[in-house]
Amino acid sequence: MDSSAQLRMMVYASLLAALTAAGAYLAIPIGPVPIILQNLFVFLSGLLLGSRWGFASVAVYLLAGAVGLPVFAGGLGGIGRLAGPTGGYLVGFLPAVWVIGWISERSKTRIFADVFAMICGAVITYAFGVTWLKTVTGMTLTKTLAVGVYPFLFGDAVKIAAAVLIADALRPVIRVPGSRFRGSNYKQ
């Protein structure tokens, strides 16, 4: 990858990290885990940037939050947020975005692969989030699933549908080095 392509990817990764932070400001508190838009941008980071640069984007976002910038849900920040009840969801974003990018990079059937990749990413995020939420709060697994998964499933389905449309619209515009996607692949 030449230096201009690398610079372009750094800009995209930074932009998606900033959008992830902006998505965290739109939080609806419904319990220990708020409804947020940041996972939409985590999905898009994997779909648009691939595994490596998507991982870098989410890592920058988490690092900014860990050092105290107000980028986590509700405009909060600090290392304590990673150790708090929602910390597992935040940490789960890293393997989730990598898997989304990895599946997306290797797929030939775009829409189904993208949806499958984001479902895998959501499952990974929930696995990390529920495990940590249960550990920190001491709730039963049933209660943890009731407050940490079930209220968000419909919203995640909407976010996945939105991410598919957004990725389809943006792939022809942004030029990701090595990407096979040069136009709307969902119409082929």
UniProtKB/TrEMBL annotation:
| Compartment list | Cell membrane
**The keyword ATP-binding is assigned to this record:** no
What are the TM regions of this chain, as residue ranges?
58-80, 86-104, 111-129, 149-170
Task: Drop me one GO molecular function for this one.
Answer: biotin transmembrane transporter activity
Membrane topology value: Multi-pass membrane protein
Q: Which family does it belong to?
A: Belongs to the BioY family.
Q: Please state what the protein is called.
A: Biotin transporter
* Origin species: Candidatus Desulfatibia profunda
